[in-house]
Amino acid sequence: MGRSPCCDKVGLKKGPWTPEEDQKLLAYIEEHGHGSWRALPAKAGLQRCGKSCRLRWTNYLRPDIKRGKFSLQEEQTIIQLHALLGNRWSAIATHLPKRTDNEIKNYWNTHLKKRLTKMGIDPVTHKPKNDALLSSDGQSKTAANLSHMAQWESARLEAEARLVRESKLRSHSLQQQIGSSSTFASSSSASTSASVLNNNKPEAPPPPPPPPSRSSLDVLKAWNNGGWLKSSEGSGAIASTVGVSGDLESPTSTLSFSENAPPIMNSIGGENNNNNDNAMPMIEFVGSSGNSSSLVKEEGEQEWKGYDSSINTFSSGLHEFTMAMEGTWVHETLRTNGSHDDIVEEGFTNLLLKTNSEDPSLSSEGGGESNNGDGGSAGHSDFYEDNNNYWNSILNLVNSSPSHSPMF
DNA sequence: AACAACGTCAACCGCGCAAGC
DNA sequence: TGCTTGCGCGGTTGACGTTGT
Fold this sequence. Notes:
Blueprint lengths: L18 H14 L7 H5 L5 H12 L10 H14 L3 H6 L6 H18 L2 E2 L4 E2 H6 L2 H42 L4 H4 L3 H8 L18 H10 L1 H4 L4 H7 L65 H19 L6 H6 L2 H4 L4 H6 L26 H20 L9
Antiparallel strand pairs: 1-2
The protein binds a DNA duplex through helix 3 and helix 6.
């Protein structure tokens, strides 16, 4: 309470860093590591507060930072994770290797947020603005439920990310001590190694409190497995299907942080065009064709054509989806279609990237509301497909490894 | 050419959490 | 158990660059 700001001391410099200061900080950390940030400035001969040094290092000087324009995939990742996690920039950054939370935050505020707003999408709720206005009480309630569940899951995500981060640090230092590369930390899944390494720790990171019902992502997995179509009797349906996926051994998480294994639900119905040559997590979006290779990313709004209409259907679909989770509604389309794989034909990427060539009527400016047809014949079934794909893509994201986070 | 408006982003601020005492 | 300290996070600011008038 009332703690004085760390930079209150007279004589401490503020404002932009000079190259000389950068050099000093860099040289010191390279030689000694940062250690205590508070003590660092004096040791490094800097007239800065420790906080400023830490910020400068983490956001700018750290060698494993990728600077420059965000790729299309990174943008997609940010949007999807933001839909799930909200303004949890550090958690989002965990999934974007070599990007800092500050950079992501800035990019969101200056680019993505504006684009979504321009398209008539609420950047906070990721719902069409008019939809929010029209939503009835019931819809609001279900949306709130979904949001609530997402909060539980995001808390869990963070805890696990932290766990992995710690385990990485430990394994790294362990490797350094041993002086040889061990299969110990690198070959097993991070979650496994985390649990092993945690034996050194008095106690594991506290798991988030249990959600009121199965977490949203468990539900999503059940959804993806089509399992809860088999028994749609209320919440029990969900619980009865979580075991189907087979990766729910952890009492605290359904996440797979395996470094080598591909995400559980990779490339449904499509090829994997990711090179991942820089060890990026396998952030793959459900869908085919995506053929991101064939997509010419242009400056500005070009790449966003189609997103406005698609996101409308995604978001609207959330209401229905949530109702289904409550066991009060059954996904008729899925039921009648039978094959779940058939439904998951088109991924978020595709939906995001639909170009005018597919639907010339689409425009990037404010036309979202009226564009409810993706290519004319898109009707009710597409509506549910979009919803399904939206969550598939988020699931894939979540299943992808955060192990190369710059935070590690 | 000068000024205003707007956009971008590095850096700062304040708060909350957790560890240590 | 309560207080202090250090760290990390998210929100905000302000300097600087770019574009428009």
